[in-house]
Amino acid sequence: MFPDNIQHSAYLPSIKNNQNLSLAFKELIDAVEQYEKWRSLLNEEQIRTIYKKNLEDRQKYYTNESEAFDELNDKLIQSVKFDNNKILKQTLIEFHNAISHLVAVYYGRAQDGKNINRAINHFRRGALDSYKAIIKDFYHIRDNETYNPLNDLKDIREREYKNIGKDESLCNDYKKLTDKIIKTLLP
In principle, which of 11, 15, 172, 186 could form an S-S bond with 110, CB 3.0–4.6 Å? Predict the structure, then answer.
């Protein structure tokens, strides 16, 4: 895995034997698979709608304008071929941040254990980002007849806010919620 001429850290067992780290990494993998499953179920019209809503939200945020896109922007949205990305950019960023902390452990900069805990937090944030993106996408494309996850989401978010800074993961709860959302697109 690593070149022979590199001496690994005495802290390597703290990576290999850390159950919390393994669990957090598994949560990230599960979330990425869930996001990939979600995106594979979307048709081109739904993807276009999601892109358009996200661009409108960004325009409102940065320009403080509440009106929707003008006709020119709408035509532009209709003419662009959008990729159906199967992994969220923010999730990749969190993964890379976690790996950076683990590399620091490998090279012996982990005496206080903070880097392993930081890696765990990045893996979990990446997982939560993927689940939350599914929920956001769903609200962009759902009609009023479709399942409304609002009450389930409120319960999860309340627990999330109450447990900020604690080592409790909500990934399983978000996975259950996104399972329900995904079922709405299944035949």
Answer: 11
